[in-house]
Amino acid sequence: MLRQQYSLEKLRSTLIPSNQWRPFPVAADRQAWSAVPTAVREAYLAEAAQKHGYAWPELPATLFMGYARKGNRSEYEAVYFQRRTTLFTLTIAEAIDGQGQYLDDIINGVWALCEESFWGLPAHNNNIHGYPLPDIDEPIVDLFAAETAAQLAWIAYLHRDALDKVSPVIVRRIQDEIRRRIHRPCQQRTDFWWMGYAGGALNNWTPWIVSNWLNCLLLVEDDQHLRATMIHKAITALDRFLDKHPSDGGCDEGPGYWGRAGASVFDCLELLFLASNGAINVYDQPLIKKLGEYFVKIHIADDWMVNFADAAARVGASPTLLYAFGQRVDSPDLRQMGLWASQRPIDAAARIPSSLRVLSGLFTFNEPYQAATTAIQAPYLRYAWLDVIEVLTARDQAGRSDGLFLAAKGGHNAESHNHNDVGSFIVYAKGRPLCVDAGVDTYSKKTFSGQRYDLWAMQSAYHSLLPVIDDVQQQPGGRFRASAVQATDNVQESSLSLDIASAYPPEAKIASWHRSITLVRGRGVRVVDDFALREPVKTITLRLLTPSLISEDAPGKFRLRTQALPNAGAAADGALTMSPALPMTTESLPMLPAGKLAGVWGDALQAMVFTWEAPPQTGRLETWITLA
Fold first, then answer.
1. pTM > 0.90
2. What would the pLDDT profile of 61-77 be if each residue is shown by its tens digit?
3. Domain range 8-370, its CATH number among 3.10.180.10, 1.10.260.40, 1.50.10.100, 1.10.1740.10
4. Where is the protein localized (predicted)?
């Protein structure tokens, strides 16, 4: 898409030199920064006031080694991200305020980051020797080494005048560190897997790192020949990601990762657009528009999103990012979603802030801030079918979040951030969770190891009535997939039908397991399982996860009642009937204290466990999920 259309020679003649590129006002432009919307000004200044005189926490070697020694990611990352979040808040606040009161705090933060041996995370410290500490002679370019570099590059861009008055060493140190840690390794190496030279699968790492690499090249590199050469290498990596991307625009990593997958593709394209005065422009490509509109298609209500794979059920949406994406690709739905998201409070302390996105929202696409007091609904699409990643979404009525919402998936069990969940589904009622995918708990060393599927949240046993046959579940791998997949939609119904037998190993003894998952508008969600087993089995066990309170009115008839969830959330009211009426017990699900799952579900999440003893070799199970 990019590397052929924009050759190295064309880049050299098209790109604005780094010393002339001024995409946004610098902090010394007081007229521009004084015009920042009041809500943004107040949010950042209020947050920064709490950080004035900030004592930058240390990142000792033993904390770094906590990952190698005990598999813990959280302890190091908590301090690591707090340093960067605080520095970003101070950076924007000083640009808004312009009085110099946060400048020393910024200098301390910049120096603290420059003194770190590795800008990445311990979990990404894949040096060739396997050392538990980073090797400064082998700089690794991971997600957050690149993210840190871009953050520092924008600090130098915004505040260079003020920093140089203190000491020219500060900006020079930033630039030297970026060249040493990012530019030289990316120039010299082709074995970073995210570059795509090895030909394997790519994921959010590629566009996310490339977007930050481009930030640094455009802002820091003053050798214009080298700058263009490296930008061509960067867009070649991005092209490899796009070449392999599902043509439906779907992100099999889920909506949280979309923010650094499809949305980072947009960051890359926007940087190239800005750095060439619009001469580098592929916004008219159908795939790019689909990448953006994916986020609209999987939106349920409020901040609840369809969360297959390692996705969180609640995902904050950047209003200016969505609006900007919508403007560039001419998507009314994306623009509308951006305006809708602007009605939420401004987050001046985001865990992983993006300088590009914030600056673009302030100075290029600031319409969401101007519309923040206007009552605007999200698009709430009636139906969407992503035919490559095999995800269906449907709701009772377009433009409204009341009624029922259904998401269902086919696919395979080698997806990025995979869960074994072929044939899984999610149901929300009146915009609240009723039958859910738990998501993923706080990452640890085990999450991305050979023990991944020892974690209950990754197993098919804990996904939406997927059968466990005599303790045999779905297995990970590309050959474990759905077959005979078909999506249909009409005024009355939206349905996904598939056979999930091939998602199981032979030991499951399944000849066929045909599942249809249907939203019958105005009535409910119907799940029908028609199965045939090759030989008799002892037990079929099926689990359905819900955050609602469970009561059994009669055999096969259950009432689900609302209860409070964290962060002002609430579970839905609903009802479930099953035929035949299988015995049901409940199972509490273990979660890490203060982990990701507890942050969404609190202690509310339970599994309804249905047990079918001595089932027939051929049979049917029909389940209805309805409003209360």
1. yes
2. 999 999 999 999 999 99
3. 1.50.10.100
4. Cell envelope
